[in-house]
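Table 4 source record.
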Amino acid sequence: MQKTQLIGNLGNDPELREAHGKPVCTFSVATTERWKDQQGDRQEKTEWHKVVAWDQLAKTCAHYLKRGARVYIEGKNRTRKWTDQNGVERYVTEIVAKEMEMLGTPGNSSTPPGYSVPPGHQDDVPF
C-alpha cells in the first residue's frame, strides 16, 4: 500500500488545464519541519511537493485554493519520465491527490475551514 499525506501551504495558485481529455490541476505545497538542535537553537527545513489533481478534484482545487492556503492532501507518489526537446531524459516525482481538505485561514478561501472533497471524486489516471 502506498499513501502520502501532507499538511502544508500552497506555494502558488493552482493551474487548471486539460490533459488526456480530463481536467488536471497542478500546484506546489510546502511542508516545514521545526526542531531544536543539540544546542537548543531552533532549526527549520522546508520541503516542496508537486501535487496533481484530476477530474472533479482538479476543478475544486482550482476554484477554491490560492497561494498561501493551508491544505491537507492525501494521495500517492508517482514518478514520471519524459524526454525533453534536447533528448535528455527527465524525471519528476509528484503526489497524485485523492483527497483534499482546506484547513483555511481567514481571508485565504471562500469556503469554511475543514471543507473536504471525499474519495471517489477523482479517477486514477495512469501517466
